[in-house]
Amino acid sequence: MNIVDIIDAKRRGQTHSQEEIAFLVHGMQQGTVRDYQVAAWLMAVCLQGLNLDETTWLTEAFVRSGDQLDLSGVGGVTVDKHSTGGVGDKTTLVLAPLLAAAGVKVAKLSGRGLGFTGGTIDKLEAITGFETALPKAQFLKQVQEIGVAIGRQTGNLAPADGTMYALRDVTATVDSIPLIAASVVSKKIAAGASVIVLDIKCGRGAFMKDLTQARQLAETCQAVGQRLGKRLVTVISSMEQPLGYAVGHSVELMEVIRTLRGEGPADLTELCQALGSIALLEAGLAKTPQDAVQQLTACVESGRALATFKAMVVAQGGDPECLEDFSLLPQPARISMIPSPVTGTVQSIDALMIARAAQAVGAGRRTKEDPIDLGVGVVLHKKVGDTVQQGETLVELYSDAAHATEAMDLLRDAFCFTEGPVTPPPLILLEPTHAAP
Question: What is the pTM of this model?
């Protein structure tokens, strides 16, 4: 087989064989297929798509490119949660310790930033000393003893997906449904959990811009999982405006701690309770959604959820003082206030513009090699439905640049106003659905 022929076939809209998919993935790992050739194939896929067979074969090739975690020895029911990414989406950092405090085992492999903002791993690295590259034995021991571990893709866990994941970030090939499905499902299978919950984002700040696309991704993930013997539960949630108030790294971590204290934003709390309830029900640890919510609320109010997060930080080498003294987290050189130009009600907030503003000051990557500035970001003061007075602060910009004109312009343009009352959009757009293997 020849990689140029494979690229050309997909460019022409032809269907790959399982052998061709395996050849591509193996060659990418061995270096016989170059980055620029993979990039060309990714763009062809974005334009021509992959059918369900091809998507399943790609997922399987990712899984077979490395080892699979055997979680059978950690005890209890193992749960994994994944989000397709959004603006201000720090759900994993709240939900993982919350579920562990409720009695399930959470073995979570996460990635770095795709597109405009950083990922879960970037946010955790705002904690001084926090180690995300965990050896397999340490990862498993930590899940067994503490109930939760969050690490990045290292070693032999779906390494081919990790390579392709990084290339997608910088080649405008992130928002392909089959590529997202193969990446998500392969990581979940490699991570070995028995309960898998997928939070699929939908809206202006998500890869899936409308409900039709989001449904298609949910159905693709379920179908691929079913073919490969995994039962996936999918939820579609709104990303029309940022989740919570903070977008960045340090600023999102602060919001995570406040949420684990029971002081977090209403939308972030609602989403964590919704996803957590599904996980507890699927794990057999709750009989009804109401019972699950009560258990999760008790974990927060008792302090067990925050204590579990701290235990994870200590186990992974992080400084727990950062969680009490936010000044120990990376800080920006300056904070700029953006005032409201009118008196009225916030009608909409363009999450994508907020994300672009965060990227403009260094919170996201433009190329694969770009460093992330962990201290910069955006903090909203108002959300959709809030009233505001002219001159009142709408949003704060945390930056290191003396002149952050591009970011400030984006933030101003992100807000639309009206005179009358506005009902915020629903957070959960499609209730849980799943397909049994």
Answer: 0.89
